[in-house]
Design a protein that fits this description.
The complex is a heterodimer of chains A (about 190) and B (about 230). By secondary structure, chain A is an all-alpha fold. Helices cover about 70% and strands about 0% of the residues of chain A. In chain A, strand 1 and strand 2 form a beta hairpin. Chain B is elongated and about 85 Å long. Chain B starts with 16 loop residues before the first helix and ends with a helix. Classes of the chains: A mainly alpha (about 190), B alpha/beta (about 230).
C-alpha cells in the first residue's frame, strides 16, 4: 500500500487536485476567474487520470499485468481494472467513458473561461453543472463496485479515485460559479 | 432627439470562442490518442480468429466444488509463436442440447489425446428454449456422469430431459465446467451450442468453429495444435 502511495504519477495527480482545490477555495464567493480555472484544472486532472486508467486497462488486457499500478493489497488497480466483469460498461472501458465525459466538461469550461460574457455563457454554465451532476451516480456505482463486487473486495483503485475526486471537485466549482452568477458577481475578479 | 444610453453590462467577444475551445479540445484528444497508441494500444477483442479472446470471470465446477474462474488466468502472456505452451480448447454447451450430449464422447477422446498440451474449458450456457432449463446439479452430473434425472423423456435430466446424465456418451470430464452468464454469451457471440474454439497459449483465437465449416475439431486440433507443438 505504501509503495502505491509513493508512486510519483499518483503524487502528481494528487498535486493537480491540490492546485485545483486551491483555486476553488480562493475563488469561492468572490473571483469567477479563479473558479473557472479551478473547474478547468479539475477537468484536466480528470481527463489525464482517465487516460492513465485506460492505459492500465489496455496493458492488463494484452499483457495480463502492468508495472503502472500495484496488483496487491487494498489500494491497487489489478483487481479493479483487471476484472473483466466490472472493468467496462457495455464493453467500453470505464477509462474511455472518463475521457469522453471530461472532454465535454473541458469544452464547456474552456469556452466559459475564454468568454464568460457571451450570449451562450449562461446556458454553458448550466450544461456544465448538469453534466457533472449526471456523472455522480456513476462515481457512486464505481465506488460500490470497488468496495463490494470485484474479486476479493474491497479494493481501491487510486487512479480511478483521482478521476472520481476530480468530478466531485468540478461539481463544487460549477456550484460556486452558479452562486457567483446568481449573486451578481459573475464579472468579479480580484 | 433621443440619446442612446451606453450599456454598462459587459459584452462578449466578437469572435466565437467555442471554435477555439473545440480546436483546443481536439488537440488534447489527439495527444491522448497518440499516447495511448504508443504506450498501450488497445487489443482487438472478440471470438474471431486473430482476436484476443473475450475474458470472463465466473463460477466453475472443478469436480469437487464451485470456485471462481477467470479465463485470462490461463493465458501465458509471455508465449511466442513456435514456443511450447499450453493451448486452450473452449467448448460452449447446453446440458439439454442433443448435439452437446453426443459431443461428450468426442470431448472425452480429445482429452485423452491432448490433455498434456491443451487446457480444456467447458462453458455451460442455458439456451432460451423450452425444456432447456438447467441448474448446477445438472451441470455437475453432466460433467461427472452421475445420476441425475431419468431415461423416461419426462423432462428430468440431461439431453432435454430425455436421459439420465449418468448415460452421457464418453467418460467423465476432468476439466473445469464454467457457469455461463449472459455477458459471456454476448461477448463470445454464441447463437447456438455446441460451439468450439481453440486459443493460443497467449489467449488469441487460433480457430473458431463458425469460421471453419467442414473442418472437424479433431482435424483442427491436429492442424492448429499438433502443427505447433
Amino acid at each position: 500500500m505504501n509503495e502505491t502511495l509513493n508512486d510519483p504519477v499518483l503524487l502528481s495527480f494528487i498535486g493537480g487536485l491540490v492546485i485545483s482545490s486551491y483555486f476553488l477555495i480562493q475563488g469561492k464567493g468572490k473571483d469567477t476567474t479563479k473558479l473557472l480555472i479551478s473547474s478547468l484544472a479539475f477537468a484536466g486532472v480528470g481527463i489525464i487520470s482517465s487516460t492513465y486508467t485506460y492505459i492500465i486497462h489496455n496493458k492488463m488486457v494484452v499483457q495480463g499485468a502492468t508495472s503502472f499500478c500495484s496488483s496487491e493489497g487494498i489500494v491497487q488497480c489489478g483487481s479493479v481494472i483487471g476484472d473483466p466483469q466490472w472493468n467496462n460498461l457495455f464493453g467500453i472501458p470505464w477509462g474511455v467513458f472518463g475521457i469522453i465525459s471530461f472532454s465535454l466538461l473541458i469544452f464547456l469550461s474552456l469556452s466559459l473561461y475564454l468568454d464568460r460574457h457571451a450570449k451562450w455563457a449562461g446556458d454553458f454554465l448550466n450544461y456544465s453543472w448538469w453534466a457533472a451532476l449526471a456523472g455522480i451516480p456513476f462515481v457512486a456505482l464505481l465506488v460500490i463496485i470497488e468496495l463490494t463486487q470485484v474479486e476479493d473486495a474491497p479494493h481501491i483503485c487510486p487512479f480511478c479515485t483521482i478521476a472520481h475526486i476530480s468530478l466531485i471537485g468540478y461539481v463544487f466549482s460549477t456550484h460556486y460559479l452558479r452562486k457567483n452568477r446568481d449573486a451578481g458577481k459573475w464579472s468579479s475578479t480580484e | 432627439m433621443a440619446r442612446r444610453r451606453k450599456s454598462l453590462a459587459p459584452k462578449g467577444r466578437d469572435d466565437d470562442v467555442r471554435i477555439i475551445a473545440g480546436f483546443a479540445l481536439g488537440s488534447i484528444l489527439t495527444v491522448i490518442m497518440i499516447l495511448v497508441v504508443i504506450i498501450a494500444p488497445p487489443a482487438t477483442i472478440g471470438p474471431s480468429e486473430g482476436e484476443l479472446a473475450p475474458d470472463f470471470s465466473s463460477d466453475s465446477y472443478n469436480g469437487g466444488s464451485w470456485v471462481n474462474f477467470q479465463l485470462s488466468d490461463t493465458f501465458d502472456y509471455e508465449w511466442d509463436e513456435g514456443e511450447y505452451g499450453e493451448w486452450i480448447l473452449i467448448q460452449f454447451i447446453d446440458t439439454d442440447c442433443p448435439y452437446c450430449w453426443s459431443e461428450g464422447e468426442t470431448m472425452s477422446n480429445l482429452y485423452s489425446q491432448w490433455s498434456n498440451d491443451v487446457e480444456f474449458i467447458t462453458i455451460a450456457v442455458e439456451l432460451s428454449i423450452s425444456g432447456h432449463d438447467s441448474d448446477r446439479q445438472e451441470i455437475e452430473a453432466f460433467r461427472d456422469k452421475t445420476n441425475y434425472g431419468t431415461d423416461d423423456n419426462d423432462g428430468n435430466g440431461c439431453n432435454s430431459g430425455r436421459d439420465n446424465c449418468i448415460n452421457r456418451p464418453g467418460t467423465p470430464h476432468n476439466w473445469n465446467y464454467v457457469e455461463a452468464t449472459s455477458g459471456i454469451m454476448k461477448d463470445w457471440e454464441i447463437t447456438g451450442t455446441p460451439f468450439l474454439a481453440i486459443l493460443q497459449p497467449d489467449g488469441y483465437v487460433a480457430w473458431n468453429q463458425y469460421e471453419n465449416n467442414g473442418e472437424s475439431i479433431e482435424e483442427a486440433m491436429q492442424r492448429v495444435v499438433g502443427g505447433n507443438q
